[in-house]
Design brief:
- This protein has 362 residues and is of the alpha/beta class.
- The chain has one domain: TIM Barrel (Alpha-Beta Barrel), CATH 3.20.20.
- The chain is built from 15 helices and ten strands.
- The protein is globular.
- The structure holds S-adenosylmethionine and iron/sulfur cluster (SF4).
- The site of iron/sulfur cluster has 9 residues, from loops.
């Protein structure tokens, strides 16, 4: 097996079967994959981590994804909506700390009022940071003209996970109705790419009913879609969600963690110059989970700069880390943590996807 892994890793292209074999590799095989992906990362994007200060601006959502703790039908979630003043204060903090970029994330709301609010926030964030803060948004599925408006107002990266590229699995983890439609999600990703966003997607790893073939196809989906960025994390169950009833089908949590690291490493091998985030959910499983992801191929970290009082309520899954901290605590702790990976931090840099720049040159 171990020799076979070395041979496969030397190939120009990886097939679905190769990827399945690599995803199933044992500890020795896994370490070979990690050594290879780590070298590719250092050769193609360098040993540098870029920050995206994450503002979880609201947990109000009109959808009811079966896995998510802030789904509309979860009546025990305490809802919040951070004021514009608080968002701008967090943006100022990120700018002063030279974070380079921000991510605005929230539950999915489609309304003219919400569209305007985001447009105004984008303009104001650009203004208070002298155009220095890069802005990623992750606000779900929206009409094309809304994506266009936000792009024109300063958002230049968008994160919309496909969650699973297999429509059958997609409909096992979402209700089957107009609001949760696989084709619509795909069309949104296409629209974002067409408008000119650096387009990011990703999947959850270790979902109930998910197979190794699904994961291999997810990787190939991302390659074929030609994404610029990826945010991919382990699925972690939440007690107040419908998917919780299938927890007996799940891989042990440590295996979901290792499998996520393998997915990150394999994506780095497949897509050498994209940006890959070390998802917060990794840290919910292993205290140095994100640092491990950085070692095997991730190059983006999203320090949570949501005001501390709201963090506990953006509870997508159990054991969400740092919900009792303030942004300042995170900064000090993170610098030390990145230090152990051997990477440095791209302070004050946007750290745009190199893949995107190349794609645009063509
Ligand atoms: N509402 C937007 C959307 O769905 O694209 C953005 C916010 S949503 C909370 C961000 C991501 O959280 C989702 O894409 C999903 O992959 C992830 N997520 C939700 N519930 C999760 C869970 N139980 N375990 C791991 N990740 C989860
Ligand atoms: Fe809403 Fe996003 Fe959670 Fe789905 S994953 S319920 S869209 S916040």
């Amino acid at each position: 097996m171990s020799n076979q892994i070395e041979t496969v890793l030397k190939q120009e292209q990886l097939s679905e079967q190769d990827l399945i074999m690599l995803l199933q590799s044992d500890k020795i095989g896994r370490n070979k994959i990690f050594t290879h992906s780590s070298k590719i990362k250092s050769d193609y994007v360098g040993k540098r981590v870029y920050y995206r200060g994450l503002i979880e601006m609201s947990n109000i959502c009109s959808k009811s994804c079966y896995y998510c703790g802030i789904r509309m039908d979860n009546k025990s979630a305490k809802r919040y909506n951070i004021s514009d003043e608080e968002i701008l204060k967090a943006a100022k903090f990120a700018h002063e700390k030279k974070y380079g970029s921000l991510v605005l994330q929230a539950g999915e709301i489609i309304s003219p009022v919400f569209t305007k609010r985001i447009s105004n926030l984008l303009k104001q964030i650009k203004e208070i940071s002298n155009n220095e803060l890069g802005i990623t948004i992750s606000l779900g599925e929206q009409p094309d003209e809304v994506y266009q408006e936000w792009f024109e107002n300063g958002a230049h990266r968008y994160l919309l996970r496909i969650e699973s590229s297999n429509p059958d699995l997609y409909y096992k983890i979402h209700p089957k109705n107009d609001k949760h439609n696989f084709e619509t999600r795909l069309a949104c990703l296409e629209s974002l790419q067409k408008i000119g966003y650096q387009t990011g997607t990703g999947v959850m790893v270790g979902l109930p009913f998910q197979t190794y073939q699904d994961l291999a196809r997810d990787l190939l989906f991302m390659r074929d879609f030609d994404i610029d960025m990826c945010g991919m994390g382990p699925y972690i169950e939440h007690v107040d969600t419908p998917l919780y009833q299938y927890r007996g089908l799940l891989l042990p949590i440590e295996d979901r963690f290792t499998l996520t690291l393998k997915m990150i490493a394999l994506l780095r091998i497949l897509m050498k110059d994209i940006n890959i985030a070390a998802a917060t959910a990794l840290q919910a499983i292993d205290p140095i989970g994100r640092e491990k992801a950085i070692k095997v191929g991730a190059n983006i970290l999203m320090p949570n700069i949501t005001p501390g009082m709201y963090r506990d309520d953006y509870k997508l899954y159990e054991n969400k880390p740092c919900t009792d901290e303030e942004a300042e605590d995170c900064t000090n702790c993170l610098e030390m943590r990145i230090g152990i990976t051997g990477d440095d931090i791209g302070y004050g840099e946007w750290g745009d996807s190199k893949h995107y720049s190349k794609r645009k040159e063509l």
